[in-house]
Amino acid sequence: MVQIKMYPAKNGDCFLISLGEIEKKHILIDCGYIDTYENFLKRDLVKIAECNEKINLMIVTHIDSDHISGAIKFIEDNNKNKFIEIDEVWFNAYRHLQSFKKDEDELQEIEKDLLEREIALGKSHLNRYNRDEITKDEISAKQGSTLGALLLQGNYNWNGKFNGGPVVSKDNKPIYIDEIKINLLSPDEDKLNKLEAKWVKELKKKKWNFTINKNELFDDAYEYMQMMYEDDSNITVSDISRQSQEGTKILEESIEIEFPIDESVNNGSSIAILIKSNETKLLFLADAHPNIIIDKLREIGEENFDLVKVSHHGSLKNTNYELASNLQSTKYLFSTNGFKHLHPDPQTIIKLLAANPMCEKQLYFNYKTETSNIFESTELQNKYNYKIITGNGEMPIVIEL
């Protein structure tokens, strides 16, 4: 048996995958915001521990606040009072970016001051966007308050399958957790190199002539700056009116239109995976770019999936027509409340439906959105042979296979 929980994570991601009947294996992918963890995820983690089970693999796909914030709070809680075992964590932090040589020279005091100020700003920014109310203590800078620092403090098995190095797709060899097979689709070395180049560019833009070294302040400053300066410059809001009577006709005309693909460096660094358990195949695409997913699926010769978590909350720039044609599935998951950038884009969904019109499909939305309303259409459901399942934002959607 395979169970997938898609949590209400606002405009973010949080998934718990449980596999097996007895001695279940659990894979946690992202943790949404702090509220996601505190209001929904934590109680399920406690239940897993009460059953003498554990998180066999925790993946934090990339450094965006809608994926990582709840993970920071989770690991902070678990460090203070360990309530659940975690076999391994996959997460690429500053220390895993390898393309730039890191000097051994000590930072000057003024450089330390600048980095500490940036950390304080980042901590304040993160908490402001994670909760309706925050305490004074949460605004203050706390050393070791980033995910990377907390993983080190808790002595977790961090990127163990990669010998402590970066989670990066170098070949097509699968990774095993007992009988569970995982293919890593993204990122590759090029995506990670671009991420580090972005970081160095940000430092230079601030006119900080730092000697980049292994000081732990860089780990914290890097993580917070990535979240503070998330790149939304390439976001395109759909020009299809969600209220127009002509919306369906215009929508169908967009099926083969190719939009510019996502160029966000943060999204490009996403950890995207294929999970295979017995005959069940699950694709979790984080916010990954479409080109790397297309290439990797072809290289490993995989098609026809049981479930696809659609990339970047259904953004039209992350699922082009070619990728949609490769994502043959009966179940598609869209994780977003639609408040940011109006995701998911209707063009993404119509591409996925049109690529496999004869097969009976289910579309899962963890919130009711303007886009989900479009696909409530009986005409569209009959034409493209699908059903729609919409959450209320107050409890997780549970999918069993």
Automatic annotation (TrEMBL):
Protein's organism: Chungangia koreensis
Any one Pfam family match given in the protein's UniProt record, by short name: Lactamase_B
Boundaries of every Metallo-beta-lactamase domain copy: 11-89
Residues forming coiled coils: none
The protein's name in its UniProt record: MBL fold metallo-hydrolase
